[in-house]
Amino acid sequence: MEEKEERIKLLVSKYNINLGKLEKEQEKLAKRLEIKDAVDFSKISKIGGFANVFFQNKIISAAVVVDSEMNVIEQKYFSDRIKFPYIPGFRAYREMPAMVSCFSELDEKPELIFINGHGISHPRLGIASHFSLAIGTPTIGVAESLISGEAVNDSININGKIVGRVLQEKLGSKPIYVSPGNMISVKTASEMAKNMIKLPHKLPEPLHLARRYARELIRELF
Asked: What is the dihedral of CA 121, 126, 127, 129, to 10 degrees?
């Protein structure tokens, strides 16, 4: 733990980052979140998945848009130099600029987006929530570990409040932790994630396809 804290201190100094200021910004933005269904999600026809990968000093943000049958209708990516270090709890500041640029490149704008990361299961503002506020589109965060709260049965609880659900549709696999990012309820986010899992994949299909596309890009570009 001491080694980790020391590493973060060195990064904060090297990049001249004011973590206290960023924490306050996250807390302020979190007050703008609307954890309720903005639309009738049973009627949407375009769903997106975003996944980010890194190679040396580069970030690649990969987006896949599918129709209601999970057929790919568009793929786009955006690559840029990494300008912010990895600091737990502040992923959005490292990854979101590339994600927003990638989103702007899409011709087929999704009505709902799955993000590889946390929504409101973050102690302040998860990357799925932050991204939604930036682009104005409902998002769902899908993470493979918890960074805040606890899993009680199939619920994710923070301070006694249910902020997400634990899904384990693939037998023998580790669970995934689903939480709304913004503009969607906990119940609907869980249902949408569960309904879009196509076994043997354990992730919702739009996110699985985005991660596969990101891996392909790494091989092709580097």
From this structure: 90
CA distances from 152 to 70, 92, 133, 205 (A): 31, 27, 29, 26
Residue 1 confidence (pLDDT) above 80? no
Query: Which residues is 59 bridged to in the sheet?
Result: 54, 80
- Residues whose CB is less than 8 angstroms from the CB of residue 197 and which lie 6 or more positions away in sequence, other chains included: 167, 169, 170, 203, 204, 205
User: Which residue in the block uniquely carries the two structure tokens 């091989």?
Assistant: 219
Q: Which domains does the chain have, with CATH numbers?
A: 2-221 (3.30.2170.10)
Q: How far apart are CA 112 and CA 204, in angstroms?
A: 12
Contact criterion met (CB below 8 Å) for 175 and 168 = yes
Whole-prediction pTM: 0.96
